Amino acid sequence: MGRSLAAISTSACLLLALNACTADNSTNAEPATATTEHQTLRIAAAANLSDVLPNIIDSYQTDSNMSNQGNLDIEVTYASSGKLYAQIKAGAPYDIFLSANQEFPAKLADETALPFTYTRGQLALYSVTKPLNDFKPASLIDAFTSASFKDDSKISIANPELAPYGASAKSYLQSQKIYEKLNAQKSLIQAENIGQVFQYAHTGSVDYGFVAQSQLVAIKAKPEQFITVPKASYPAILQDGIVINNTVPAAAFTDYLRSDAGQQHFAQAGYLPIQ
């Protein structure tokens, strides 16, 4: 009888020890898996975001409220919204699409993914060869149609079919009833996207370029180098995004874009409030 109780006691001790070891191993394993898991967030972003998005990403990854950001790589591809849309339709493995308009994200919407507005852009006219400090939009239109302008002056806009800022520039020129005239006299130089327009204007390859206000804020352009086009003179440039691959990092990052911290970056970069 004594030996039986001892055997039972010994077996119980062994069982408890095994359970304790199993529990310790389980407790130690879970955090190791959580902290070593590495993920990549792939973002397709409109070209006009190339100046502001890197700052937002840096803030997001260093924000003390964001856990395990050291294990998240964020890769961004910048191009015209139309080109990125075509890539996504062809199966490009993006997690988030940040467009410069509302049209392209709307085409990708379904029951599980809905577009969201994350900022509102501003259109500006930029020149390093023709001082603009004495011009107002009305007087600039006169300059566009003057005899001296017809000779060799050039204006660049982004492709209106692919780039929302280009569509806004076209709409503005049409509202001033000079788009067809400028096009007919071959004064308009069409670029692939807003980034290319900026390069044309910044290098003096064209006399004027319709660019994003944010691009001018980024380079600290001088007042005489640009005019902010009145926002009432062209359709609002509401920029929408959509989550393509519904993952935790994608949801968290898009939440940050619309947070007070994210919106502060957009405001400082020359964008308008989305409210």
Notes on the protein architecture:
With 275 residues, the chain is of the alpha/beta class. Helices cover 47% and strands 19% of the residues. It is built from twelve helices and ten strands. It has helices at residues 2-36, 53-62, 81-89, 103-108, 137-144, 147-152, 164-175, 179-184, 194-202, 213-219, 248-258, 260-268, and strands spanning 39-46, 72-79, 96-98, 116-121, 123-126, 155-158, 188-191, 208-212, 226-228, 237-243. The strands form two sheets. It has a five-stranded mixed β-sheet with strand order 2-1-3-10-4. It is elongated and about 65 Å long. 36% of the residues are buried. Mean pLDDT is 85; it is low at 1-35. Residues 1-22 form the signal peptide. It comes from Psychrobacter pacificensis.
Outline of this structure?
With 275 residues, the protein is an alpha/beta fold. It is 47% helix and 19% strand.
Shape: elongated
Alpha-beta content class: alpha/beta
Structurally, the number of domains stands at 2
Strand segment count: 10
Going by CATH, the architecture of the largest domain would be: 3-Layer(aba) Sandwich
Task: Indicate the proportion of strand residues.
Answer: 15-25%
The radius of gyration over CA amounts to: 27 Å
> What is the name of the CATH topology of the largest domain?
D-Maltodextrin-Binding Protein, domain 2
Give the biggest beta sheet: 5 strands, mixed
CATH superfamily of the largest domain: Periplasmic binding protein-like II
The side-by-side strand order for the widest beta sheet comes to 2-1-3-10-4
Question: Helical element count?
Answer: 12
User: Distance N terminus to C terminus?
Assistant: 82 Å
Report low-confidence residues grouped into runs of 5 or more: 1-35
Q: Return the CATH class of the largest domain.
A: Alpha Beta
The string of secondary-structure elements, in order, is: HEHEHEHEEHHEHHEHEHEEHH
Question: How much helicity do the residues have?
Answer: 40-55%
**Rounded average pLDDT:** 85
